């Protein structure tokens, strides 16, 4: 028997077309997968960026507040202890609640005749006695038919914090014309302003005035990623919410950030180091 070797004619046209089609599908699948992975990675990076920025901001505020010798809190409250859930992907939303301005100081720091500033000791952080309203935009009491009624406020949406605290003194930063006190410490006053998406931190020193930062300006912006909303009566409500426990010298600070449809919510419990910051010493 004579065996004939089968000639290798190579790929037929049909086989070649099928092979190209399969290869194209594989390439498309790989590109699609890589594209999806790239989008996911970018989203994760953006989320991490907002989270890190938020954590850095919270740490800075906490480091200032924890050293406080004097602390003034200004902001807005909602009745019934309402807490607004900020949208992590959108800023500046409308809040269907009316907000009321409040201001807190330690009792001994409130000037005589000031009927608008609340003190932590008598008013606590949540109980406001009912009787009559006071002048201005601030609310100290609740108007109602029941004179014994109380309204509970707990969550304060910050508009401003004023913190006085001690810092190490360095004569290299002594201001012109100021006598060197030879002190171990200087006194710093930090004014932290919450205005829409921005948090401003302005610091002024008693002696080291060369370190002073001035006013609400681009130079004092610490972050531009804070969320915020607008109340039904037109008040800007920052996503910086604080609750105060005056008896334990403790504050809980909650910050909600949103930037380019990415968001983060961060919280910290701050235990003030110094005594009698929120409540005067007992005589």
UniProtKB/TrEMBL annotation:
Pfam families the UniProt entry points to:
N_methyl
Q: Does the keyword Membrane apply?
A: yes
InterPro entries attached to this UniProt entry: N_methyl_site
Q: What residues form the membrane-spanning segments?
A: 12-34
Which keywords belong to this entry? Membrane, Transmembrane, Transmembrane helix
Superkingdom is Bacteria
Q: What NCBIfam families does the record tag this protein with?
A: IV_pilin_GFxxxE (TIGR02532)
**UniProt protein name:** Prepilin-type N-terminal cleavage/methylation domain-containing protein
Naturally occurring in which organism (per UniProt):
Eubacterium ruminantium
